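wait is this the right file?? whatever heres the structure
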């Protein structure tokens, strides 16, 4: 689809900017080289969140994986009492969770976080019970429908292919509904969701609040936004759009490029391939697109100005970084905002250091003015 077939959501003045707490053993000084000081632990991941809150970020992603350092649900409960302002974007693998149980957990966390909970829905398999893409996304749509009903405090009557349920909502969800409305929040914590395949896009169009995408070229991002905008309108809905990417920002472009290259200085070719192969989603459309960007980039790893694909040599998911001086990084992010991106989920290595650098050089200029949106 041509990006001009559907009008874009419109340029964004003030985005939501989130950081990343590396619960999934994904923090390094040198990619692929284990560092005991950076391994996922309550203390280290808590400190990443506290750094992000102090630095001025709006939200923090608590990732999920099949082999985690720390599970996100108990971590979210723990971090609720340690933070005051920052929102929490909790990733949940819906294929692993019984929806009524997950609804109770989310309602409880929303109370503990006083309305600061946001939810990243991942369309996962149950390890050992793989589903093809289309039925897996059908199941994901059912889970999202069930969660939205129960978290809205409404009785559930759901008779689907994957779940057949009739039950009352969690009591706490009804109480949270009144509290959220009184605070001017959406009735249900917003659902963030991503996926490049056609079934994934349809689920996003029908049930997500924020469609998340991994790094891609400006033209590809524009085309994805146009496609998802049109799909959502067919269902009488509007989507917000988010962009998940790493950042490497330094005072000069040369320093930023050297810092990016340094990240890979301890990674052997075989080790990078082994890291990517360990991911159970290695054949997903999104992961394959990240590999394609890496393979089509120039010899220096840049697929377009300031978008460096070297990260994908050491991880299977989000595999590119915006690399440059403060003005270049700011211009790149504003370019996405002009397309309609209103949410950024950023990360960098090591996560505490890079959060502080991004805050020092870019965040204040990027986030001038009040935050808009739910």
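ok assuming it is, sequence goes like this
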């Amino acid at each position: 689809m041509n990006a001009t077939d559907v009008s874009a959501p419109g340029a964004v003045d003030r985005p939501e900017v989130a950081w990343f707490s590396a619960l999934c053993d994904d923090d390094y000084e040198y990619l692929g080289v284990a560092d005991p000081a950076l391994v996922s632990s309550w203390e280290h991941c808590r400190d990443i969140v506290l750094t992000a809150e102090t630095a001025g970020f709006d939200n923090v992603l608590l990732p999920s994986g099949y082999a985690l350092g720390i599970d996100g649900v108990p971590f979210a409960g723990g971090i609720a009492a340690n933070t005051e302002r920052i929102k929490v974007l909790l990733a949940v693998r819906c294929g692993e969770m019984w929806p009524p149980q997950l609804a109770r957990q989310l309602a409880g966390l929303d109370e503990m976080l006083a309305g600061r909970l946001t939810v990243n829905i991942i369309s996962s398999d149950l390890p050992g019970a793989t589903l093809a893409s289309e039925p897996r996304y059908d199941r994901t749509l059912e889970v999202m429908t069930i969660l939205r009903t129960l978290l809205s405090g409404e009785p559930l009557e759901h008779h689907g292919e994957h779940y057949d349920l009739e039950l009352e909502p969690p009591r706490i969800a009804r109480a949270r509904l009144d509290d959220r409305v009184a605070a001017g929040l959406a009735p249900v914590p917003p659902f963030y969701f991503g996926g490049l395949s056609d079934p994934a896009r349809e689920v996003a169009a029908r049930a997500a609040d924020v469609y998340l995408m991994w790094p891609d070229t400006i033209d590809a991002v524009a085309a994805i936004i146009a496609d998802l905008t049109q799909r959502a309108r067919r269902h009488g809905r509007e989507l917000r759009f988010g962009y998940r990417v790493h950042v490497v920002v330094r005072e000069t472009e040369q320093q930023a490029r050297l810092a990016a290259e340094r990240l890979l200085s301890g990674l052997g070719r075989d080790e990078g391939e082994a890291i990517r192969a360990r991911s159970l989603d290695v054949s997903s459309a999104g992961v394959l697109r990240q590999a394609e960007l890496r393979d089509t980039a120039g010899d220096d790893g840049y697929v377009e100005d300031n978008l460096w694909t070297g990260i994908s040599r050491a991880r299977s998911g989000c595999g590119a970084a915006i690399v440059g001086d403060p003005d270049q990084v700011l211009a790149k992010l504003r370019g996405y905002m002009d397309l309609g991106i209103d949410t950024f989920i950023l990360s960098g290595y090591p996560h505490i250091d890079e959060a502080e650098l991004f805050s020092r050089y870019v965040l204040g200029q990027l986030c001038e003015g009040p935050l808009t949106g739910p």
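The CA atoms of residues 104 and 170 lie 6 Å apart. so i think its the right one actually
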